[in-house]
Structures are given as C-alpha cells and as structure tokens.
Amino acid sequence: MTSTGIDNWPAPARLTVGIVSGGRVGTALGEALESAGHVVGAVAATSKANIDRVKQRLPESEIAPVPRVVGMSELLIVSVPDDELESIVTEIAVSGELRPGTIVAHTAGAHGVEVLAPLIELGATPLALHPAMTFVGSPEDTEHLRSACFGITAADEVGYAIAQALVLEMGGEPVRVREEARSLYHAALAHGANHLVALICDAVATLRIALAGQELPGQEPIDNRPGGLPEHLLAPLVTAALRNVLELGPAALTGPVARGDAQTVAAHLEALGEADPGVAEGYRAMARRAAHYSTAPVADVIAELDES
Predict the structure, then answer these.
(1) Pair 138, 89 in one domain
(2) 190 and 267 share one domain
(3) Are residues 241 and 215 in the same domain?
(4) Confidence grade of residue 305 (pLDDT, cut at 50, 70, 90)
(5) Which of 19, 202, 210, 249 has the lowest tally of Cβ within 10 angstroms?
(6) What single string gives the DSSP state of each residue in 144-197?
(7) Same domain, residue pair 26 and 168
(8) Three-state DSSP state, 18
(9) pLDDT in tens, 19-58
(10) How far apart are CA 67 and CA 88, in angstroms?
(11) How confident is the model at residue 219 (pLDDT cuts 50, 70, 90)?
C-alpha cells in the first residue's frame, strides 16, 4: 500500500544512481534508493572514511572519479557540504559528462535549485532534496530517513512530482520549500537541532561539576565519557520537555522564567558564572527567549538579565 492509499500503481522506473560524494548523507540516501529498487552504479569518494563507508554499505557500487559518476547517472545525487556545492556543480558542468535529461538532486538545506543553474543549462532536471534529519555515519541513518521530512524545491511542477516520488520511495515525507525561503528554512532546522546539541552539552558539563564527588555507592564516578550519570539524570527531563513543546507549544514552558522568579534566575546566573562563564552567557540568552514565550509577568526577570 502506498502512502496515498493506492496499492495498484505501477512500479517506478528503475534509475541508475550516482552519488557525489560518499559521506554520511549520500550513503544513507544511496541505501534508501537501492531499497526502493534503484541501482547505485557509482559513488565519488576520496577520503578513507568515505571509501570505507561506501564499501561497507554500498558494496556493489563502483568507487569512481566525479566525471565517471556523472556520465553513468540517470539520477545524480550531489551530497556535499553547503559551502562546497557551487564548486562541485562547476566541476560537474565542465566535466562534459552530464547527459541532457539527467535528474540532478542536491541535499544542501540552504540552497534551492538556482545553485544548479550551470547544469540546468546543460539540460538537467534540478531538484533540492534536503532530509531534515541528523546523520552520524551509522547504518541507522538510513532507517531514520523513513521517519524524516524532506524539504523539496524544484523548478516546475514536473520537478516537484519527481522529487515527491523519490522521497516517498525512500519512506520519507516531502515538504515544499520556496526557493527564496531555503535559507530561513535551513536556519530554523539548524537552530532547533544543532543548538539543542550545544545546549544539552552545556547542561551535561554543568552537572558534571555539580555532582562530582557526590556519587552514591554503586554509581560510576562522574567523568567526561558520554552516557554517565549527568546524561542519565537529564534524559527523562529533556525527553519530556521536547515531547511537550512539540505537542503544546509555548504552554510547555516551565521553570523560574515561566514563574517570573527573578531571584532564582539571579542565583542561577551567579552559580553558572562561577562554574563556566560561557554557559552563563548561553543561559542568559536562552532565558531572554524563554521570557518572550512566557505568559507570566517577567519584568523582574528581564531586569535581572539586564543587570547581570
């Protein structure tokens, strides 16, 4: 049964896929596309880590230079960091290997299809397929695609139809993003995911300081290894907070700012300032944002933040 509820559609055409390059995202997409019946013919990979990853997870694919990958592809996935995309597009264009009609899809979140203009001039069908997911380089990355949304941008309705079909085949959910909104879309995702990692790392580091030497009998000594007591303490709290805010929005806000408790905020800032001034600065910035979403009177809290 398809996601549309129609179970008698013809099988999608099988495409020969090329990937530039074999990093975390490209390899995961390659695996997902192969699971959907496509064939990853070749992957451009140069670093040892990428070569090893491709050999392990796409063992039937040839590891080849970019021009060969381009020349044999019906669907070319360009999966490189955002700041490398333009140079790779230029390299593909000057290679002379791109065939008219090739579907070229990049995975950079901050770009739409305009960045593919040199390839559009050569007859490519341009797509932006950005999986809104974090990738750590493990096989589980591919499984995570099945629960991910993809920000898709195309040049026309035909392109959108192709993009939607590819995303659905990989098990994801397509979400249209306007060309001019790509940077804002990407900023929102980076703010929510990347800065969440920094926030949790700060909280864990602070707990390590607060709890050091206080271990109960049978508890492991607190050190810098992940997965210890600070992480164990935080996990249920932050998991519940994340679930609540996604379900309830700003109504999920709790704590001293939500209560308008300036005295506690001041005590927090003093303690954090002694432990790590950088964490204190992060707390101050996020407390201001929390005050923005609070329904309680927070004038005293804001005054405390201004004075500290």
Answers:
(1) yes
(2) yes
(3) yes
(4) confident
(5) 249
(6) HGGG-EEEEEESSHHHHHHHHHHHHHTT-EEEE--GGGHHHHHHHHHHHHHHHH
(7) yes
(8) strand
(9) 998 899 999 999 999 999 999 999 999 999 999 999 999 9
(10) 11
(11) confident
**How confident is residue 92, by pLDDT bands cut at 50, 70 and 90?**
very high
Do 112 and 83 touch, CB atoms closer than 8 A? no
- Choose among 150, 171, 135, 213: nearest CA to 33: 171
Q: What percent of the chain has pLDDT over 90?
A: 80
3-state SS, residue 5: coil
Reported as type and span, the H/E element at residue 272 is helix 262-275
The verdict on residue 98 lying in a domain is yes
Residue 113's domain spans which residues? 16-177
**CB neighbours (10 Å) of residue 129?**
24
Report the DSSP pairing between strands 149-154 and 125-131.
antiparallel
What whole-number distance in Å separates Cα of residue 199 and Cα of residue 240? Answer: 16
Residues 51 and 140 in one domain: yes
8 A C-beta contact, residue 112 and residue 152: no
| Chain position carrying tokens 């999920």 | 252
Residues 126 and 200 in one domain: no
- In the β-sheet with 103-106, what is the strand arrangement from edge to edge? 62-63, 39-44, 16-20, 75-78, 103-106, 125-131, 149-154, 173-176
